[in-house]
Specification:
Layout (H helix, E strand, L loop, with lengths): L2 H19 L20 E9 L4 E5 L2 H9 L3 E10 L6 E9 L4 E5 L2 H9 L3 E10 L6 E9 L4 E5 L2 H9 L3 E10 L2
Antiparallel strand pairs: 1-2, 1-3, 4-5, 4-6, 7-8, 7-9
Length: 181
């Protein structure tokens, strides 16, 4: 269940409790306004690490998080957020996997997609959506590569960026921009 769904469930339960405490249970009240299509839903973009594989894994949805847990990845930190649905000015953040390298690779650029296929990666799916240009409240998503580890890492948080540099990763490009709060 998404964090938004859990939050809505908690609000409904709290409202029901308030109505019951006020003795209003069963009383007709005006219906709440319908959900608005203009409300943007965000999902955390997390970095995970698998020491056995030597692989960083960036997840942008619950399915990818479940895959990380099942493959014994350790959560490191929240980098930023991704949009759960495509918004104006956004592009998909794609996930690829290379079995020979044991490497997950996230990219939002055509150059990244072309590089993934030419290096033998398999397409997994869309992790979420990121901005193509920097907007207020967004941070760059930097792609780093380690030749020694044969590993990609997507970083937005300064701690991840610093860790990538200190481990000998090189900056490849900016993949997009992601909301950060």
């Amino acid at each position: 269940m998404s964090e938004n769904a859990r939050s809505r469930r908690r609000r409904r339960a709290a409202s029901a409790a308030l109505f019951a405490a006020a003795g209003l249970a069963g009383t007709a009240v005006a219906a709440a306004p319908a959900a608005h299509a203009d409300i943007v839903s965000l999902y955390p973009l997390y970095t995970w690490w698998n020491p056995d594989r030597g692989d960083n894994f960036t997840t942008g949805n619950l399915g990818d998080e479940n895959s990380a847990v099942a493959a014994n990845y350790l959560p490191i930190r929240k980098e930023a957020f991704v949009y759960e649905t495509q918004q104006p000015g956004t592009v998909p953040l794609h996930l690829f996997w290379n079995n020979a390298r044991q490497d997950n690779f996230s990219t939002a650029t055509q150059v990244g997609i072309d590089s993934a296929y030419s290096a033998g990666y398999t397409y997994i799916g869309i992790q979420g959506y990121v901005n193509t240009a920097q907007e207020p409240g967004t941070r760059p998503l930097y792609l780093f590569w380690s030749e020694a580890r044969q590993d990609n890492v997507l970083a937005s948080d300064q701690a991840t960026i610093d860790s990538a540099y200190s481990a000998g990763y090189i900056l490849i490009r900016t993949e997009g921009y992601a909301p950060h709060y």
